[in-house]
């Protein structure tokens, strides 16, 4: 294996990692602060992608698509919190899982009803449609953009959470929501704002994925499962944890898919390696999660002072 | 208002009487397909085209009024079996058509054919049903899974590609794709990569593929997987440099999501919207007018199923209650397929042409399918000899 291939695969892992971070940050905030299991987070990602794609098809401008995608999913997240989630905070997790699972079905059918069953069109913006040559292997310029946007979002989250008053409340809320409410903070508004922020982040992920993935009903589910694994590994409620573990999961998943079949071929015969490679690669992050949970049940970067 | 309401009730009553009179003569046909979920577009195409066929025949097959009852299998074999049982026992249909995916087909074909109901599959063609497991009650207007890929194997051989890199999802149809392609490909296969079903991102695999420097790449990624793969292949700068051959990857259901991104992809297909015959012209024109999209191969096969059933019921005088007579009529039915020459083999799968269909820009600058000629002419599948029927 050449160095260039290795570099490209690391970039692929990094790109998947930042995408997972944008999804899991919102998920972990809502779970950590409101103790609310939101399975419909993937639907917010899907709707973000649809909003952006629909705006892109009409305007042919990526900037407008970005604005519509992010604002649309934030608004949807806000509405979802007020209409559905707020009524469920006091109930147990099973009720929340059932209700938000219902929302998944609802949003998938809604998307099908509005935009049809076939995948929806969205291409990369003209300026980013080229490739960058890396020691003989071409790498999509758009994927570099995803990495850049992901890192910027991570930086933004860091500044918001560690340097602002809202961030202080978010951190306090994640440690002890009752005391925060007792201190006279409008916890309802804070909850809705956090939910909307999480939805906006999912919307950014949806917007950035739209041009590389197929925008279609159900696109949120496979990635939601990975995002769940990310927050479990990172430590529930911790955005910092979500960032590191998203990068780890992205790299492990990519490396597994790229290099595991190759390694297996060294010890097994070709056809067995061919069959076992992808199966093992897809299990890899789950095995990693199990190992983390066995050693550190709170996750790798749990919220402190809990 | 009151008067109007009364009149409405009378009218409704009359309509209901009319319906019940007709219902005695109507031939009931069950449509079973995947109509919801990510792959719902395929079943929807089948259903829409079948209904267009019914409409073209003024709602009558062989003079008998047709009543189509639609059920969604949700791409779940167990749901498919339930729905098939409902169609057979409750609705008492004589014929079931559709069935989008092979795994559902494998589950439903026995309950349907053993109940003495004729099954006309218009998409899924799993290998076991083509050979040893063939049934007198099962007809296909599509293909055996392998055949689709054989045409691209032949094309790769004809084009002189020495090293081909193959990718497919890790399930039965993906394995059929690889074996079908290899049956007709004479060069070297550098690697066969099986990915997870519904994997959204192929960046890792595409980087490996690029490093292997193949002459051509062959993929089978139906539905949204195909959109993902082709987008990412194009964005990696490979489309146009390394020929991308495929089957069921860029088709009528995915081209609208890809548009010019897919220009340059070569596909092997039993159907192309620009096949030049009068029945196809009418089909494509009316399908576009009615549903505002270009018909896919799934649509074409399902439209063919409607035309086949019409021809068969014409032979039986519009009667579907004598199973043997109906079966014989379907087997010998003559109809004009929108895809060109069509006849049943001994295993009741079609002997038909497979075309090379390119994605190219048409006169108006839109991405469209362009038929580049026949790759395999009057092609029979590789398994018909294992079928006990003669």
UniProtKB/TrEMBL annotation, chain A:
<dbReference type="GO" id="GO:0022857">
    <property type="term" value="F:transmembrane transporter activity"/>
</dbReference>
<dbReference type="InterPro" id="IPR001851">
    <property type="entry name" value="ABC_transp_permease"/>
</dbReference>
<dbReference type="GO" id="GO:0005886">
    <property type="term" value="C:plasma membrane"/>
</dbReference>
<keyword id="KW-0813">Transport</keyword>
<feature type="transmembrane region" description="Helical">
    <location>
        <begin position="225"/>
        <end position="252"/>
    </location>
</feature>
<protein>
    <submittedName>
        <fullName>Branched-chain amino acid ABC transporter permease</fullName>
    </submittedName>
</protein>
<keyword id="KW-0472">Membrane</keyword>
<feature type="transmembrane region" description="Helical">
    <location>
        <begin position="273"/>
        <end position="295"/>
    </location>
</feature>
<keyword id="KW-1133">Transmembrane helix</keyword>
<feature type="transmembrane region" description="Helical">
    <location>
        <begin position="141"/>
        <end position="161"/>
    </location>
</feature>
<dbReference type="GO" id="GO:0006865">
    <property type="term" value="P:amino acid transport"/>
</dbReference>
<feature type="transmembrane region" description="Helical">
    <location>
        <begin position="39"/>
        <end position="57"/>
    </location>
</feature>
<keyword id="KW-0812">Transmembrane</keyword>
<comment type="similarity">
    <text>Belongs to the binding-protein-dependent transport system permease family. LivHM subfamily.</text>
</comment>
<keyword id="KW-1003">Cell membrane</keyword>
<keyword id="KW-0029">Amino-acid transport</keyword>
<dbReference type="Pfam" id="PF02653">
    <property type="entry name" value="BPD_transp_2"/>
</dbReference>
<feature type="transmembrane region" description="Helical">
    <location>
        <begin position="63"/>
        <end position="85"/>
    </location>
</feature>
<feature type="transmembrane region" description="Helical">
    <location>
        <begin position="189"/>
        <end position="213"/>
    </location>
</feature>
<feature type="transmembrane region" description="Helical">
    <location>
        <begin position="97"/>
        <end position="115"/>
    </location>
</feature>
<feature type="transmembrane region" description="Helical">
    <location>
        <begin position="12"/>
        <end position="32"/>
    </location>
</feature>
<dbReference type="InterPro" id="IPR052157">
    <property type="entry name" value="BCAA_transport_permease"/>
</dbReference>
């Amino acid at each position: 294996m050449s160095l260039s291939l290795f570099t490209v695969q690391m970039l692929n892992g990094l790109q998947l990692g930042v995408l997972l971070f944008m999804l899991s940050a919102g998920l972990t905030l809502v779970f950590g602060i409101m103790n609310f299991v939101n399975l419909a987070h993937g639907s917010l990602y899907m709707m973000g992608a649809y909003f952006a794609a629909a705006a892109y098809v009409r305007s042919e401008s990526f900037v407008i698509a970005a604005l519509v995608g992010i604002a649309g999913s934030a608004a949807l997240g806000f509405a979802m919190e007020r209409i559905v989630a707020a009524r469920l905070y006091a109930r147990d997790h099973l009720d929340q899982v059932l209700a938000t699972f219902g929302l998944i079905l609802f949003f998938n059918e809604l998307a099908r009803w509005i935009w049809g069953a076939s995948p929806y069109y969205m291409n990369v913006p003209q300026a980013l449609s080229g490739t960058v040559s890396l020691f003989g292997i071409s790498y999509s310029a758009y994927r570099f953009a995803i990495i850049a946007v992901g890192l910027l979002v991570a930086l933004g989250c860091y500044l918001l959470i560690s340097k602002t008053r809202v961030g202080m409340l978010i951190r306090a809320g994640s440690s002890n929501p009752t005391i925060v409410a007792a201190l006279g903070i409008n916890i309802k508004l804070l909850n809705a704002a956090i939910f909307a922020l999480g939805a906006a982040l999912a919307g950014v992920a949806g917007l950035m994925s739209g041009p590389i993935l197929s925008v279609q009903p159900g696109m949120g589910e496979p990635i939601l499962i990975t995002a769940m694994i990310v927050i479990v590994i990172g430590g529930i409620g911790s955005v910092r944890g979500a960032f590191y573990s998203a990068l780890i999961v992205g790299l492990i998943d990519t490396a597994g898919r790229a290099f595991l079949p190759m390694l297996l071929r060294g010890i097994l015969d070709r056809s067995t390696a061919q069959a076992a490679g992808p199966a093992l690669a897809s299990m890899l992050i789950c095995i990693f999660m199990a190992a983390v949970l066995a050693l550190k049940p709170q996750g790798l970067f749990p919220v402190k002072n809990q | 208002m009151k008067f109007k309401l009364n009149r409405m009730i009378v009218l409704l009553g009359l309509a209901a009487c009319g319906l019940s009179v007709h219902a005695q003569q109507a031939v009931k046909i069950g449509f079973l397909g995947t109509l919801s979920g990510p792959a719902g577009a395929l079943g929807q195409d089948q259903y829409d085209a079948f209904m267009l066929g019914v409409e073209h025949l003024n709602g009558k097959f062989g003079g008998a009024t047709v009543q189509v009852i639609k059920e969604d299998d949700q791409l779940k074999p167990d749901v498919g079996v339930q729905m098939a049982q409902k169609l057979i026992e409750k609705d008492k249909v004589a014929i079931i058509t559709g069935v989008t995916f092979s795994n559902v087909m494998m589950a439903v074909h026995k309950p349907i054919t053993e109940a003495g109901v004729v099954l006309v599959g218009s998409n899924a063609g799993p290998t076991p049903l083509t050979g040893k497991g063939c049934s007198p009650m099962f007809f296909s207007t599509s293909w055996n899974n392998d055949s689709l890929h054989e045409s691209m194997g032949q094309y790769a051989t004809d084009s002189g590609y020495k090293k081909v890199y193959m990718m497919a999802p890790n399930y039965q149809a993906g394995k059929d794709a690889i074996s079908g392609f290899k049956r007709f490909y004479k060069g070297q296969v550098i690697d066969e990569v099986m990915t997870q079903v519904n994997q959204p991102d192929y960046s890792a695999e595409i980087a490996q593929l690029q490093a292997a420097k193949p002459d051509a790449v062959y993929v089978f990624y139906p539905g949204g997987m195909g959109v993902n793969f082709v987008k990412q292949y194009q964005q990696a700068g490979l489309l146009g440099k390394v020929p991308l051959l495929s089957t069921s990857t860029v088709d009528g259901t995915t081209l609208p999501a890809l548009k010019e991104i897919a220009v340059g992809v070569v596909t092997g297909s039993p159907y192309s919207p620009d096949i030049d015959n009068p029945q196809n012209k009418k089909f494509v024109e009316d399908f576009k007018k009615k549903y505002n999209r270009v018909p896919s191969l799934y649509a074409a096969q399902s439209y063919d199923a409607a035309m086949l059933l019409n021809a068969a019921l014409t032979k039986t005088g519009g009667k579907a209650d004598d199973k043997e007579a109906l079966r014989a009529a379907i087997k010998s039915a003559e109809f004009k397929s929108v895809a060109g020459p069509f006849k049943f083999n001994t295993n009741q799968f079609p002997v038909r042409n497979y075309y090379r269909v390119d994605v190219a820009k048409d006169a108006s600058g839109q991405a469209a399918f362009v038929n580049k000629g026949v790759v395999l002419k009057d092609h029979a599948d590789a398994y018909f000899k294992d079928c006990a029927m003669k």
